[in-house]
Amino acid sequence: MNAPDIFDRTLRRQRRDRCFGAYPDHNFVRHFMLEGIYDRLSMVARPFSDVLDLGCFRGEFAAPPGARIARLDAGTRFAAAAGGVQGDEDRLPFADHSFDLVVSAGVLDSVNDLPGALVLARRVLRPDGLFLAAFVGGGSLSTLRACLREVEGERPIARLHPQVDVRAAGDLLMRAGFALPVADTETLTVRYRALSGLFGDQRGMGAANMLTSRWPLSRATLARISDAFTARADADGRTAERFEIVYLTGWAPDPSQPKPARRGSATTSLADALKPGGRPATSA
Length: 284
Fold this sequence. Notes:
By secondary structure, this protein is α/β, with parallel strands linked by helices. It has helices spanning 9-18, 28-41, 76-81, 114-124, 142-152, 166-175, 195-204, 219-230, 270-273; strands at residues 50-54, 68-73, 85-86, 99-105, 125-136, 179-192, 239-251.
């Protein structure tokens, strides 16, 4: 028996289609993620021939030189604009072993079956293929969450999406069967003059509430939350909000890769994990 969906798949697609026009004005979080992915990819001294951009938005991710790229997005308009296919990240339409690089930026935090999506990403990779992903993780929107608790107390009403912290993300990579898994974080802090600016960015990046169970905010409650947000402003009249970005790195298993050490006996550094098959990097 399948678990019920956390996110409304139809609404998720609709929200992405609705934000299509405004997206370039609100895509700074994903650009931050892509910069981190490029940095990690630059540490890999090997060629890639077939790339999958998983959750492509407008297709901003540039494939390595000479590589073919396929793109998928949950939004019909994004998929069409990027020359990709429309679909969900946990229901991939690609054959196993089709790619040697899979990248994903800004979408895995709103996938219904995240463990399943990671398994599928590993399955579409060829042996010794690389998976690089980034998404908004645990600890994000801490100011907004604090304002909601202040105004609404501990009422069991879900206003914001559940979040995956870096430790859980690393465990999911291992469970999905990736070799040399690494999960790490970077923090992006944005300062807003008003809560409306944060809400506008959330809508503009297609990240507004997509939970299957949603309850509207009354005007009075929204005003109180806005006041609580403004009360946390600094001397410049801006309130800081935090986006904790979780990065995932993993390799599709291959016999050439070193076998993992006994659990707890050592850790894999990001630099080592990004070396193909765990071998020292050499120029292509």
